[in-house]
Amino acid sequence: MSLPMVQTPSANAGPLMLENIPALQAEVRELAAERGAVILAHNYQLPEIQDVADYVGDSLGLSQHAARSEQDLIVFCGVHFMAETASVLCPEKRVLIPDVDAGCSLADSITAEQLRGWKARHPGALVVMYVNTTAEVKAETDYCVTSSNAVAVVEHIYREHGPETEILFGPDMFLGAYVEKRTGRTMHVWDGECHVHAGIRPDDITAVRAAHPGADFLIHPECGCSTSVMEYVAAGDVAAEGVHMLSTGGMLRFAQAKKGSDGAVIVATETGMLYPLREAAPDVEFIAANERASCMYMKMITLPKLRDALLRDEFEVKVDPVLAERARVPIERMVAIS
Ligand code: 13P
Ligand code: SF4
Known about the structure:
By secondary structure, the protein is of the alpha/beta class. The protein has three domains: 11-104 and 297-321, NadA-like (Rossmann fold); 107-194 and 323-337, NadA-like (Rossmann fold, 3-Layer(aba) Sandwich), CATH 3.40.50.10800; 200-288, 3-Layer(aba) Sandwich (Rossmann fold). Helices cover 43% and strands 14% of the residues. The chain has 15 helices and twelve strands. It has a four-stranded parallel β-sheet, sandwiched between helices. The protein has a four-stranded parallel β-sheet with strand order 6-5-7-8. It has a four-stranded parallel β-sheet with strand order 10-9-11-12, with helices on both faces. Helix 1 (21-35) runs parallel beside helix 14 (303-312), helix 4 (80-89) crosses helix 15 and helix 12 runs parallel beside helix 13. The longest helix has 17 residues, at 321-337. Bound molecules: 1,3-dihydroxyacetonephosphate (13P) and iron/sulfur cluster (SF4). 1,3-dihydroxyacetonephosphate binds at residues 43, 58-60, 132, 146-147, 194, 222, 247-248. Residues 79, 104-106, 132, 194, 196-197, 270, 295, 297-298 line the site of iron/sulfur cluster (SF4).
């Protein structure tokens, strides 16, 4: 490796100083060019990571981008299941994650063994799993979904397999409840949750609504408040036109459409999302529904770790080829429907 290293803390050292960020970012870009790597980042990543990435997006956009990318090396700034999904979709590529411990409480809420047991209790049911799952769970799944396409995929299943189809939906119970409400049909829903989104409670919405009357609501369907907001709408307490249940990518498109206008928007999701929203529409006031809603796993990816990943070619996320072949089927079905 010929590039000189910026004298910044190594991955495990103390906090990154603001003044070190530009030099580190330049180093990351040079290393990426030298290695022929594409850097993908989720919308919840730290701002300095988002700024240095080739592509920033939601779970669906990241999967699609990984599948389309021409580079042989993907550095995934997100959590482990996302890097695994990229590896499943692109088995011939090398996928790196800057910190292998960047997990996901939602993906941890169902194991392949638990899913096999659930399937055994419901023979003939179709399995629909959120993309926030391990490759082992995906290998037991018929269709994957993300928050941006869950309703469309389930509607597709009812069209293709009949309206009485039995569906096992998991692992997120709030997303499951949202899909049931939108499709008007009942599924078997796993009782898993993301600790960050589940922590955004109806009380948060009540308080923030009182402080910002008239503001629009952007709500991620994983949130613990999503069911109650749907109930407020049904009861006429909140105007339906001001409430938008959206994936992080959908929130970004909402902000882009608002560019140049002002007003206030309450955002119920992980707080990393505020950065791309504010960049997209600087005149709009984006307010966190709960300021403590921060995902510690997403924030484990730092610039020094990203630099070190490129420099040391670590940490590779590789899925066993036989498992990957099975896990690819539900993801490709989802991508084809989206
Ligand atoms: P999306 O970006 O697909 O909306 O998912 C949010 C999330 O929680 C990812 O971990
Ligand atoms: Fe997982 Fe929740 Fe973090 Fe998303 S925000 S990565 S679902 S723990």
